[in-house]
TrEMBL record:
It comes from Oryza meridionalis. SUPFAM superfamilies: PLP-binding barrel. It comes from the Eukaryota. This is ornithine decarboxylase. Its EC number is 4.1.1.17. Keywords: Lyase, Pyridoxal phosphate. Residues 58-216 form the Orn/DAP/Arg decarboxylase 2 N-terminal domain. PROSITE patterns: ODR_DC_2_1. InterPro entries: De-COase2_N, De-COase2_pyr-phos_BS, Orn/DAP/Arg_de-COase, Orn_de-COase, PLP-binding_barrel. It is an enzyme of class 4 (lyase). One of its GO terms (molecular function) is ornithine decarboxylase activity. Homodimer. Only the dimer is catalytically active, as the active sites are constructed of residues from both monomers. Belongs to the Orn/Lys/Arg decarboxylase class-II family.
Amino acid sequence: MAGGRPLESVLVAPGVKGKKVLAFKRDGLKKNEAVTGLIHDIVASSSARSAFHVLDLAKVVDLYAGWRRALPGVRPFYAVKCNPDTALLGALAALGAGFDCASRAEIEAVLALGVPPAAIVYANPCKPGAHVAFAAEAGVNVTTYDSEEEVAKVKRCHPSCELLLRIKAPDCGGVKVDLGLKYGANPDEVLPLLRAARRAGLGVAGVSFHVGSGASRAGSSRE
């Protein structure tokens, strides 16, 4: 792993601190050989046959830095459902990322790492009322919606919450899972949903959409 202050903050972050972390030289070939050797050692020394993964913390730091260079005014909110490993979540929290949580369990996991509630979006347009009430108690004050029923639910369970209107996005090409088939407002539903939020006294802070899992064509959103 590389040196530097961002990496130092990651190594002492909740979720990372106390775990075994190995350092490899950044020479690509030697690093790959070292990681391969580590994997073989783990397999040889363990009687368990369960899956495991190797996390490159320096790569996480580099990718986050690349995001900040390309989009300095945009804070990324990592979708916890992609990989809820506590070391990864802790590393991202130490770097300053926010978190996109789709469930109460994901919110609890992120809060347990010391992440402030203001850094969490409850990104699920169809939530149990009890979980909306939990978000209110936890101080998570932004959530998504795409129906008038959800507006009424949020009004009842979390009246101080801000909303993000979930809209249907175009198929980005090559997606493995197109959640636009399941969630999101159609163009003709946008104004009625904005008016429903206004009648309920709930602020709409912006819009939300899902590009699809495994999307390969960024340009399709411009189209």
